[in-house]
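Data availability (excerpt). The following record was deposited with the supplementary files.
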Amino acid sequence: MVTPFIILETQEKYPGLRHDGSRNVLLGELAFSACWHKDRRQLKREIPLDSNSREFPNFIEDSHSIEILLSEESRDLNERHPKVIASDVERIDHTVVSKSINLIDLHIYEDRSCCLMLGQPQLAELPLPSFIGNVVVPFFYRISYVERHGLTMARSELWGEYSHGAEGLRERSYESDLKNLKDIPRNAPCSCGSNLKFKRCCIKKFNAKQNIERDLQNAEQLSNARRHQLDRVKYI
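Predicted structure:
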């Protein structure tokens, strides 16, 4: 339940949002300044004016018109978080047309509600200010990034994306399960409940994931090395 105190706390942190008590909705302009650090896999938010991050190409200072539906009845049934609406229809439509993409590529449905399956850490019970900072701000940062650099760049440079709806829930659950497997001894019972030893069960899934991550890391290192060689050639 979102109390009046939590609403006031949220408005102090995000003064562009106001509370419409008749609809129990937070609405207005969500302003942010953020920078994606790819090497750290981290979105740094609330960047001060004197920060070096403001000089990075991934730094974005922007605002988006949004609505956050706070009533229990309007909550997302899969995620159990408040439903978020991208309310600047003209801006979103312009982004879709100018970038030759589909609305769903922005993780926005036809009713302008936002699918927040973006591979960022998400918890249904986050306090409202933390939910906005850790989930909603990254969501709209990505839209601003697409506006500036295009969808292809966003998919290659930013965090990963889950599928939409129930399929995304399954992907995230599977990923979470794989992370939990790393601490299981080979001869211990597998955590999936099969009554088999870990080495006879889900260790194959875990090893496959480790191999994929290693191959991706090697490919990225090779790409960076080739890019460095090309940069050196330019100045010889």
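Summary of structural features: Residues 118-123, 229-236 have pLDDT under 50 and may be disordered.
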